[in-house]
Amino acid sequence: MHIAQNPLSVEVTLPREDVALIKVQGYLDVDTATEFQHHLANQLHHGRRHFLLDLSAVPFMDSSGMNIILRVYQQVREMPGSVHVISPTPAVRRILDLTGVSITVPVSQSAEEALERVDRGPQTPDGPEPPAQSEM
To answer: What is the pTM of this model?
Structure first.
């Protein structure tokens, strides 16, 4: 039984003026989605355009969490800005893949990799084809 005793912990750091690194810990579901949304809205209000969402400590995410990620993605896309998911747990990655969210929102293994993607600008999210790796 899921009891709301799994509080959501959200830690925000600013690697750059327009970039928010948001580390989420706990269940990202209908009980905690509003809190997560408030953190994102606050960062948008303060002019952040790029969101790095570290989901490495999120054991479970339902459609509420996914919808918030997609909503912020749609909002920042027009700025232009970006949203990147960092190190999702296997369960969360499965949800992102099954729903197609990982096709729209790039998934990175680290904050550094996500920042590199921010620097490269808008690209296809699933385009991890750096020229240097084409050689075997």
So the answer is: 0.84
